[in-house]
Amino acid sequence: MSNLLSDIVNLFYPDYCLLCKNPLTENEKHLCLNCLCDLPRTNYHISKGNPTRMLFAGYQQINEATSYLFFEKEGKTQQLIHSLKYFGNRQLAIQLGRLAATELKNSGFFASIDTLIPVPLHPRKERKRGYNQSEQIAKGFAGIYGCDIDRTTLRRIADTKSQTSMATYERHINVDKIFTLTNPTLLTSKHILLIDDVITTGATTSACLDVLTTIPEIKISIFSLSIAREY
Fold first, then answer.
1. Is residue 221 classed as helix, strand or coil in its secondary structure?
2. Mean pLDDT, to the nearest integer, of 8-31?
3. DSSP percent split of the chain into helix, strand, coil, nearest 5
4. Residues 6+ away with beta carbon under 8 Å from 47
5. pLDDT tens, position by position, 63-82
6. How many other CB atoms sit within 10 Å of the CB of residue 108?
7. Angle at CA 58, nearest 5°, toward 57 and 62?
8. Whole-angstrom Cα distance, residue 153 to residue 192?
9. Exposed e or buried b for every residue in 64-101, given b needs 16+ CB within 10 A?
10. How far apart are the first and last CA of the chain?
11. In DSSP terms, which residues pair with 107 in a beta bridge?
């Protein structure tokens, strides 16, 4: 009876694809199959000299790095990021994390990671938003890679201004020394995957790396759900 009721509700009040606005079928969630296939993937993981990796070339502890989608103003990825970041769509973040993780694992990428670390929000901002979007992306990864998510070792201790309109130099100044570590010995000799939603200039990721790279014998890989097209 419940299935029949669900079918009737979907008939008159169907869910719609976030991008093309067409009704979703029973097996589709958030995005239709056509839009899923048409996402602007970077395919950076098939190139060792990819732009995400080159952004952080100065850190010797980096093992692998990639970004899943290109981010362009008014583009498809921006619509998805805004939905998961500002409109409470945490399930979309999990779905996209799972989708990216499946494609990357099937290609053998991030093969030896031990722990997932989402880029943390300041507690005040996380309370206001209700969740950390990078942590939701990490949940999608955890389901595919079978890794634990470390939510406590890397902490954000300053609530900074929005960086949307800042130049590259201003972004780096804005995030200088805003992260700290608690119980860093838990990550000694581990291979961690640092996860974020968007890389624009790499300033926030670099600020994370500045403290994570102080941990002895740590190996770090980087994943962002998206990256600005110019990179």
1. strand
2. 80
3. 40, 20, 40
4. none
5. 999 999 999 999 999 999 99
6. 8
7. 60
8. 12
9. bbbbbbbbeeeebbeebbebbbeeebbebbbbbbbbbb
10. 52
11. none
Give the pTM: 0.88
Tell me the two tokens of residue 178.
């805003």
Question: What value, to the nearest 5°, has the Cα angle with vertex 7 and ends 2 and 9?
Answer: 95
Close Cβ partners of 48 (under 8 Å, ≥ 6 residues apart):
none
pLDDT in tens, 21-67: 999 998 899 999 999 999 999 999 998 789 999 999 999 999 999 99
Handedness of CA 40, 130, 159, 183 (dihedral sign): negative
What's the mean pLDDT when you consider all of the chain? 89
Nearest in space to 115 (alpha carbons), one of 140, 143, 150, 141: 150
Hunting for tokens 């020394």 — which residue is that?
177
CA 100, 105, 109 angle in degrees (round to 5)?
100
Predicted pLDDT of residue 67: 98
Residue 147: which residues within 8 A CB-CB, separation 6 or more? 113, 114, 115, 116, 141, 193
Q: Are 35 and 75 in contact, with CB atoms under 8 Å apart?
A: no
Nearest CA-CA partner of 226 in 76, 118, 125, 105:
76
